[in-house]
Design brief:
This protein is mainly alpha-helical and about 325 residues long. The protein has four domains: about 5-60, no CATH class; about 70-100; about 105-230, Flagellar motor switch protein FliG, alpha-alpha superhelical domain (Annexin V, domain 1), CATH 1.10.220.30; about 235-325, Flagellar motor switch protein FliG, alpha-alpha superhelical domain (Annexin V, domain 1, Orthogonal Bundle), CATH 1.10.220.30. It has helices at about 5-15, 15-25, 30-40, 45-60, 70-80, 85-95, 105, 110-120, 125-135, 135-145, 150-160, 165-175, 195-200, 205-220, 220-230, 240-250, 255-260, 265-275, 275-290, 295-315, 320-325, and strands spanning about 165, 190. The chain has a two-stranded antiparallel sheet with strand order 1-2. The two termini are about 45 Å apart.
Length: about 325
């Protein structure tokens, strides 16, 4: 057992009250993944439980008390460094638990189908603002449950968004029957072509292509701006060698094999040329030995690798695309 399964066994074994307290300290995606695993868990052997508990206690013994009771310390440091106004919002995001979240933030804890059901009958502008407020991956999932014919219109609206007035945010909070926390005097930055590109990157390929064609029909220049900001698996061929090598060190072998099953020969050669001769030969052999795989699995593997690449790019560890490579010093 590993990962979410081990966490699920531990939470199921500690009782409802204690498990609830633990879950309050996890992010919404972590809660969703662990909760799903807990719901699907069955036929856990005594040996598995014993292994999970042993692993947990071994790791616990290696922890120190550093960080325990540090909430007030962190709040004071942030206020002194950033000032009350800026630090206030940051502190709320850092220390809020799922039970305290209201308004638009509550949507981030809902599954995509539920969010779609909540907003599907709202005005398209309202839906567009909600989608820009969500994480790009979740927004893409929500979009998949909405009317495909509306998707182009929604993307066009999102691309044209720059700021949203507090009154509009208050209206959105009424959708989920929550009072908006904290009247902000300044407008909130949401949307834009970058937000649309991030969501497009997370869509299923067929839906992505359909929406992009629709956007081109309305505004070809806007479609090109969005396309320029998108980064798909095939674009890895444009990434510099140092970045490719760094990325390959973070990608599991089986994931890479699956992803390359759906790529062209030029990209495969790009990958082979940035590996050791022995590793490249092994990868070639594994690709040839790998039987037919589902397109869905290939696209999922490619999406995982792109997620790793974007996180590394955000951290400044690699550059994505020729433009980024040229700007590195």
């Amino acid at each position: 057992m590993q990962g979410n399964e081990m966490a699920a066994v531990l939470l199921l074994g500690m009782g409802e009250e204690q498990a609830s307290e633990v879950l309050k300290h996890l992010g919404h995606k972590q809660v969703q993944h662990v909760g799903q695993t807990m719901a699907n868990l069955s036929n856990v052997s005594i040996e598995d439980i014993d292994g999970v508990l042993t692993d947990f206690f071994d790791k616990s013994e290696k922890q120190t008390s550093l960080g325990v009771g540090s909430e007030e310390y962190v709040k004071t440091v942030l206020k002194n460094a950033l000032g009350e106004d800026i630090a206030g919002g940051l502190i709320n995001r850092i220390f809020s638990s799922s039970s305290d979240i209201q308004g638009l933030d509550a949507l981030k804890w809902m599954d995509a189908r539920t969010v779609a059901d909540v907003i599907r009958n709202e005005h398209p502008q309202v839906i567009a603002i909600v989608l820009t407020y969500l994480d790009s991956e979740q927004a893409a999932e929500v979009l998949g449950f909405l009317n495909e014919e509306k998707s182009v219109d929604l993307m066009l609206r999102m691309a044209s968004l720059e700021t949203v007035e507090p009154a509009a945010l208050n209206e959105l909070n009424s959708i989920i029957e929550k009072q908006f926390a904290g009247n902000q005097r300044k407008t909130t930055n949401l949307g834009g072509t970058k937000s649309v590109a991030e969501i497009m990157n997370s869509l299923e390929r067929s839906l992505e292509s359909s929406i992009m064609d629709g956007i081109k029909g309305y505004d070809e220049e806007l479609a090109q701006q969005i396309a320029d900001l998108m980064f798909v698996f095939e674009n890895l061929i444009e990434v510099d060698e140092r970045s490719i090598q760094a990325l390959l060190r973070e990608v599991p072998g089986e994931m890479l094999i699956l992803a390359l099953k759906g790529s062209d020969d030029n990209l495969k050669e790009k990958i082979f040329s940035n590996m050791s001769k022995r590793a490249a030969e092994m990868l070639r052999d594994d690709l040839e030995a790998k039987g037919p795989v589902r397109l869905k699995d290939v696209e999922a593997a490619q999406k995982e690798i792109l997620g790793i690449a974007r996180r590394m790019a955000d951290a400044g560890e690699i550059a994505l695309g020729n433009k980024g490579a040229e700007e590195m010093v």
